[in-house]
Amino acid sequence: LPLRPVVFDGVAPSPSMSSAIGVPLGEHAASMFRVTPPYPLDATLPQTWWSVTKDGRVKASLAGPNGTYSAEVAFANGVRMAVGTASGGKSVDIDSAGLIRLHSQRGDTDANVGVELSSDAGAVRIFAGGNETSSGPIQRFAPTGGGEGSAPGLTLEARQNVLVKAGKSVTLSAPQLNIRDIGKLQLSANDAVDISSSSAVGTTAKVISTTSTGKMSLAFSGPKDSLPTNGALRETTFIGTPITGFVGGPADTYSMLYGDRLETFALGNDTTAIATGNITKVTTTGAYTASGTGNTAVLGPGGAAVTAVAGGAALTAAAGAATITGSASALVVSAGPSIVRGAAVTLSATGGKVGPIVSGSDLDPLTGLPLILLGMGSPTHLLSI
User: Fold this and answer.
1) Whole-number Cα distances in Å, 59 to 56, 100, 195, 254
2) Sheet containing 48-53: which strands, arranged edge to edge?
3) Each residue's pLDDT tens digit, 32-77
4) CB-based contacts of 263: which residues, under 8 Å, 6+ apart?
5) CB 17, CB 32: distance < 8 Å
6) What DSSP string describes 111-164?
7) What is the value of pTM for the model shown?
8) Which of 73, 69, 68, 51 lies closest to 60 in space, CA to CA?
9) In terms of Cα–Cα distance, which of 322, 376, 330, 372 is closest to 349?
């Protein structure tokens, strides 16, 4: 009776020696070696056999007691294999029910490579369907620190250096990416570094330094979620206090070695509120100019000038004295009438007389007539209340 050796039934292993009647001649067994476990061994142990089919293929089923290795082979020297392809372009198809361990004690003499997995024209895929569970608490809980659910499913570890290199791009995709427990993180790009997030980006460090050797641009859009109630587009807060070790002095410094600074508000206000403190602006060489709707105030080497080209100019002291002092002279000029008004008006000059001013409305003591009728007084210098 011709026999047909069968190892796989589709994709599942189902080793057997069955009748070869009605099957192609090439699938018939040309030779067969079979071992049946003798008494008093377990009678349920499957047989071990191997066979060569008439079309030249080798099929084998190696059995043995549970918990043992069905085959143990020791090679004194190297092993070299050349494998062609079967249907679907497959060369070596291994389906293991447990751990597959590949270990090398040392590397080769050319580049000290111990294990190499490569494909000249095809992709290489490594997939892990579960997490480590029996590597001890230190390995399971570190470096993620998230418990057993965060234990690694795929571990790439080197005693010294790890290199991940691609000719085109490297993509890391995960709901969460943790880079932690490292001494130094260095990002270096020949062209550009782009960091984007659809929600938030946070940075925390003892010292943060940013240097731009070309141009730096910051654009703030918003508000957040397009809701006006979410506040300003940018907020800057300095929270140093004596409790944190800040005892005063400059909390924010700005230095420009050369060039100008330009701020433009297309529509909006610029408001500075100081609860306790001062505002000081100093120009060592040059002038300080404030301008509003064409009216200007200029403080410069030539003096101080306030010019109102539209409207009036008012100097008001609501709760104190208003003083205009000139070391050489003081001049008040108007193209129209000029008025000096007060509860009392005193004109003082060094070496002048002291007493009331006589006006054209005063009466002549001899005639009883106003002095203006006698041609006395200046008609364009008037006293009024």
Assistant:
1) 10, 22, 56, 81
2) 29-35, 48-53, 58-61
3) 999 887 766 777 788 899 999 999 999 999 998 888 999 999 999 9
4) 270
5) yes
6) T--S-----SSS-------S---SS-HHHHHTTT-S-GGGS-SS----SS----
7) 0.66
8) 51
9) 330
